[in-house]
């Protein structure tokens, strides 16, 4: 090992030393540079229950990092002449409803198909209760509406990838897991990698997924489905994933050159804007280098897979409940290994709150349901959308507008509109996937509980969610209770303006957050709609007995 490599290893040890604990779950990390394994270590516990530590041989879920394997599987069938990725999904799953159009398999791969996601809808309606077998497809077939017409924009959709997996099964005639094993994993020598459809199965050397219980301990993390397929079912090790990353940026053993060109082709939306999410892989710059990556998250675990192909730098981080952000950690690894001389200028500094106080506030579109909060976070202007649970994102000032750090949908821009009278920002123009919409500033003061709840309490039915919803005043709070197919879940409603509420989870069964907008006919509440980061205009209609 050279002195430079030794120094890098020391820096990586420092970066990860906080996870080296015997009383908490942890992570496994591996880094390869220029064809040599530079770093390969486990931290924390694979199983607190059995006192087993994480090691490089520990198998963990990679979550949504599985998605590009699903895309490649479909392209392999296309190479066989058995499947057309530009055909509509109903060609292979005719039981799906024809709604705003028939999204192609390719559009499902790029999350531009427009379908709602079974996972988002069922988590909303029943929390983390496990769907019965067949429930995933049933949830997709049940939908009467979509998030958007195919190709218009991008909203992340796990359900689309589950449908892709079912199409692969029907065309190939074998289980999805078997197809991946025979056509990809066996060919690559990835002997510790497989697709596992649920968290009830006991697999050799696999880490337990840990979820905080809110009391200083942990619960077992279980995905609420028996049918996790191409959206996030793969289990692997850092060694197998390093082998795959080298293949990803190097000569191919699986897939033709034409297939791999498609894998790395960015989509275009109906606005003409270009996205960054190709076929299960994201291509984004980090400073002056191009990165190819995809993260993953499961209940009690997370992952980041990243390669900087030009410099043969491969990074894989797998966690089983560590209080860690693998995306940030992987970026820090890139900074440490490549250094400023290669990476060039550091990212632009976030917009400072000082001098931009008039921008802070809450904004909403009654047309689309989009809800945006711009606030101060440690002296910086941050933005969050749809009352989502993710950390607020900093804004970067550019000539085109205020840019949010690029996500899966590409660049998100905010353009303030001011009142000439007081230079007060009265509205913002939000540009997402190249489509612009206006969000009006909401009042600084929210309605009182009595005003907000007037005419709202009662029972509602949501067809697409397969759920009944009850709104009530309980112990001085406005509450929303959902009764879904497999369970019930509660939320706290917080009024932010007339007929506009945010909702937040109550209890361990609930995980979703979002915005509820009331619709009235005259003074009577007739329905409400729910909008989250991955679901749009999910409607609940008042049951007539409450009129």
Total strands: the figure is 29
CATH architecture of the largest domain: 3-Layer(aba) Sandwich
Structural class based on helices, strands and sheet pairing: alpha+beta
What is the gyration radius calculated from CA atoms?
Answer: 24 Å
Task: Kindly describe this structure.
The protein has helices at residues 3-16, 67-79, 105-109, 118-126, 135-142, 158-172, 176-188, 238-249, 257-263, 326-343, 449-453; strands spanning 27-33, 36-43, 45-47, 52-53, 60-61, 194-195, 210-212, 218-220, 234-236, 282-286, 289-298, 301-308, 313-319, 361-364, 371-377, 380-385, 393-397, 402-407, 410-418, 425-432, 435-441, 458-462, 467-474, 477-483, 488-497, 500-506, 514-521, 524-531, 538-542. With 547 residues, it is of the alpha+beta class. It has 3 domains: 41-114 and 149-343, DD-peptidase/beta-lactamase superfamily (Beta-lactamase, 3-Layer(aba) Sandwich), CATH 3.40.710.10; 357-441, Lipocalin, CATH 2.40.128.50; 449-546, Lipocalin, CATH 2.40.128.50. Helix 1 (3-16) runs antiparallel to helix 10 and helix 2 (67-79) packs parallel to helix 6. The chain starts with a helix and ends in a 5-residue tail after the last strand. The model has no long low-confidence stretch (mean pLDDT 96). Residues 13-325 form the Beta-lactamase-related domain. InterPro entries: AmpC-like (IPR050491), Beta-lactam-related (IPR001466), Beta-lactam/transpept-like (IPR012338).
Strand and helix layout:
Elements: H1 3-16, E1 27-33, E2 36-43, E3 45-47, E4 52-53, E5 60-61, H2 67-79, H3 105-109, H4 118-126, H5 135-142, H6 158-172, H7 176-188, E6 194-195, E7 210-212, E8 218-220, E9 234-236, H8 238-249, H9 257-263, E10 282-286, E11 289-298, E12 301-308, E13 313-319, H10 326-343, E14 361-364, E15 371-377, E16 380-385, E17 393-397, E18 402-407, E19 410-418, E20 425-432, E21 435-441, H11 449-453, E22 458-462, E23 467-474, E24 477-483, E25 488-497, E26 500-506, E27 514-521, E28 524-531, E29 538-542
Antiparallel strand pairs: 1-2, 1-13, 3-4, 5-9, 6-9, 7-8, 10-11, 11-12, 12-13, 14-15, 14-21, 15-16, 16-17, 17-18, 18-19, 19-20, 20-21, 22-23, 22-29, 23-24, 24-25, 25-26, 26-27, 27-28, 28-29
Helix pairs in contact: 1-10, 2-6, 2-7, 4-5
